[in-house]
Amino acid sequence: MNWLVTAAARSIELVDVLELARWQFGITTVYHFLMVPLTIGLSVLVAAMQTAWVRTGNPRHLKMTKFWGKLLLVNFAMGVVTGIVQEFQFGMSWSAYSRFVGDVFGAPLAMEGLVAFFVESTFLGLWIFGWDRLPKKVHLACAWAFSLATVASAYFILAANSWMQHPVGVEFVDGKPTMNSIGSVLTNNTALAAIPHTLAGAFSVAAAFLVGVAGWHLWRKRGSSDEHREVWRSSLRLGGWVGVVAFAVLAITGDTQGKLMFEQQPMKMASAEALCHTEKPASFSIMAIGDVRGANCEDVKTFTVPALLSFLAHNDFSTEVKGVENLVGEYQAKYGTNYPDDPALGPLAGQPIDYVPNLPVTYWGFRVMIGFGAISAGIGVLALWLTRRGRIPNGHWFPLLVLGGIATPFIGNSAGWIFTEMGRQPFVVAPNPTGVEGMWMFTAQAVSKLSVGEVWTSLITLTLLYLVLGVVELYLMRKYVRGGIEAVMPPAPPSPKEGSDDEALSFAY
Length: 509
Description:
two-stranded antiparallel ribbon
């Protein structure tokens, strides 16, 4: 037993504060982002369902609004709880980063906080408690105010993150970036490309959720009469069409992001393709066989589409795309070959800088993002085909397909964010090739001065806490999904007996 304890202690010592802090932020961020896209997409779709009910008076749309609105509330509550930790971490584990960029980064985060906690919370509360208390149109306006506020919150968060990817609107004052144009930060071309891409990803998540849950309910009572069948059928087909459109928008906006990445972060583009050597024209790698960890690709065999990467980079089939090996030299010339000899950097002080991101993560993460997005859209198309003209799927594979399909856009979204964040390493604030000279920050310089034990404690605590919250969310989601419409609609009042006082009262009204 003693040797086991000793070995565990030594293994803990080998993991430094920087690596633990990155794991902590990665775990909590990815977990939180599981709730965010579903809230954004579902809030807009629920508002659209309620709009249909107000305009038509069709009870089917009211049932849809009530059912999907209940699931939205469960997910939103968990998103708020897990999201609070995110901003605290900037002070907990990344205080050096916060001191460096606080004058810039704080503005969009403050705007998001005001929108999230005032507009979202206010109108969500009015929507929850306003049924049968507010006029229909006023109540509907609350639903739209809440849903649009979630989109606005996403906008401000993405503006902050995009500034880390492409810093603009700043100048150096006393060695720190100071914002001189909030307009430039909020209209950063990186943000303007990321926002529609992220929103399309959110709608793909909500669409798959509708297809999966509604498809399961539709299939479950396929052989018997079901008074709510049209609710599930309408929900499934709405999700199918939204998912198809969302994937088309993802493809278009992803192309725009790729062209910006070629200009702003060429190392990220090279790592997305595990492109070791400069090519002109450059081929797009479909998949690779071998170990892509090395920067020379000696043992890697790839299956490619000729010249496609050049087109994705610059809209032509002849553009040169630089490889990892060539870019390393350029980065060393621009940003240095070694970290500063600063004790705050710990074991990295004075050591050579590794400008190559984790190639297996970036290469395969990029393909997982695209692949699972396409699978999600494909399941939506198949569900639309199988339910055309009133058909109800009978195969026992159908519920497995649609329920499993719920996970696909979640995986694609998470893989996309992991690729985005890890692809800019070793920078936490990536340099802008045409921006202010010296406006960048290495991730190693951003971490707080903490002990390994302190970070281990917070990492384990938050991971276990999030695990418990995940179990709670799954339990509540399962409960209300299985409960169906009956779990969210109030029971109809009993019919008054003939000749009773109740009957006379009903006639009076």
